[in-house]
Amino acid sequence: MKLLRILITVGGLILIWESLTALLDLPKFMLPSPLVVAEALYSHAGLIAENALTTLIEILVGLFLGLVFGMVSAVLISAYRPVKQWVFPLLIASQAIPVFAIAPLLVLWLGYGLAPKIVMSLLIIYFPVTVGFLDGLNRTHPAWLNLAALLQQSGRRRRLRNTLNLYRYIKIPFALPSLASGIRVAAAIAPIGAIVGEWVGASSGLGYLMLHANARVQTDLMFASLLVLTVMALLLYYLIDHGLRLALPWLADQTDLHSQQRSL
Amino acid sequence: MEPEDSANSELSEPIPDTSRDQGAPAVGLNLKLKELVFDGDTILTDLDLTLSPGKITCLLGPSGVGKSSILKILASFLPPPESSFLVTTDGDPLKGRISYMDQQDLLLPWATVLDNLLIGDRLRGDTPDTARAMALLDQVGLTKWRDARPDALSGGMRQRVALARSLMEEAPVVLMDEPFSALDAITKYHLQALAARMLAGRTVLLITHDPMEALRLGHVIHVLSGHPARLSLPLTPAGAIPRDPSDDALQRLYSEIMTRLAGEPVDA
């Protein structure tokens, strides 16, 4: 049913696109018809695939590093007051700098290869992950914290180990839904960093290919690249969303549960 | 404290049904509070509350009268007010010898029933005592639900898991804050009987707003009423718990408690 809806939507959009190009009789370099784009996609398949792979690697590595750094930062900020007081304001302030503005600098410092694009993705992804996870870590329900404190009191007093265990068994699991929201946002915006990085300076990648095609008025190739990028981004988001659902099975029916509890 | 702990857990397998492990003697306590003030409003004065060792003491009162605050001060969820005074019968601090059960079951939604019982061990970094957890699950009749997540359980079953968890630590003092008030009458009735059996030998403070629950489970019952609230003289209904609510004597006490709750504090 869901698949059918998607098919109808996509089919409808293609139909509108096709009829627009036919009705307005637009030249190929302004808006190529879907058929022309499909042709370009087919004839340049090797080129597009090669460049798509570069972009995919940039996105995946950036996403991975962004997630790791973001999660570690969130735990450190929530666990240690000095980190929160000194580092967190810096983190917020850093978001005032548009990432696009520092893209040329990254290319200057890191060269034309994968590195500046990965760093761009990382910078874009880092913030939503950190903030989402931190929000979850800071909002553990006090009743559970009280209970955990009471349970830990009856043991030997080891502060570090107790803190670690509190995070491992209570705080982090309770923060996972917020982390998942952060990861979803990250997955949706991850391609932006890679593409912007490629626009500023690259020798391969879909962003590079699009810029190149645009300059040579190969609009059909540009659209074909854009199409591949869109499909890639959608697939990435879908896979991550699906994975998160599988990883957090207790969330699906939690809302039911609370209403059930109240009615008892 | 540590060596005794491990000795106890070895001795207590399997856990006897009626009395808890013989090793640690029950501990009683006495809490004195001159007054309890929230936002400039004195809600409680001259509290002198004694929990007798191995007995269930019920604290009964309308909501907002400060009974939960008393429990939270004992559990150190709230900082003790100035001029408060707490002693135990054996002179050792109360800290680390309390377990707690809330009206909400506070089960971890992602963990199985068994893992929920073992959370205390895990949080302390001890080896999880699965044998003890299984024995307690058997006592609350949930053995076959050990691998279920809490969302698969009914409200009554969840509260039974919470009860079992509050007994995992072998804490001599159990604080219960309206543990059964979210349950329907029949489930509540069964759970009270189960609790009476499982809590035998422990020093329990049971906060409730249900006079019948207090009469069914309390060895000693205090009524907290008025504004600022004062503690009534203790009522000590006769008979072993859980008592039968249809008993005539209980019915008389019931109306007496209702009178106290309703207004004029029956003062000393």
Automatic annotation (TrEMBL), chain A:
Location, primary (coarse class): membrane
Gene3D superfamilies, per the entry: MetI-like (1.10.3720.10)
Positions of transmembrane segments: 59-80, 87-112, 118-137, 166-183, 189-209, 221-240
GO biological process, one term: transmembrane transport
GO cellular component, one term: plasma membrane
Residues in ABC transmembrane type-1 domain copies: 52-240
Record's bilayer topology term: Multi-pass membrane protein
Keyword list, A-Z: Cell membrane, Membrane, Transmembrane, Transmembrane helix, Transport
Location in the cell: Cell membrane
Family statement: Belongs to the binding-protein-dependent transport system permease family.
UniProt protein name: ABC transporter permease subunit
Naturally occurring in which organism (per UniProt): Sneathiella chungangensis
Lineage: Bacteria, Pseudomonadati, Pseudomonadota, Alphaproteobacteria, Sneathiellales
Automatic annotation (TrEMBL), chain B:
Domain ABC transporter: 29-253
SMART domains, alphabetized: AAA
Region (Disordered): 1-24
InterPro entries membership: AAA+_ATPase, ABC_transporter-like_ATP-bd, ABC_transporter-like_CS, ABC_transporter_ATP-bind, P-loop_NTPase
Pfam families assigned: ABC_tran
Single annotated GO MF: ATP binding
Keyword Flavoprotein: no
Alphabetical keyword list: ATP-binding, Nucleotide-binding, Transport
Domain of life: Bacteria
Family to which this protein belongs: Belongs to the ABC transporter superfamily.
Identification of the protein by name: ATP-binding cassette domain-containing protein
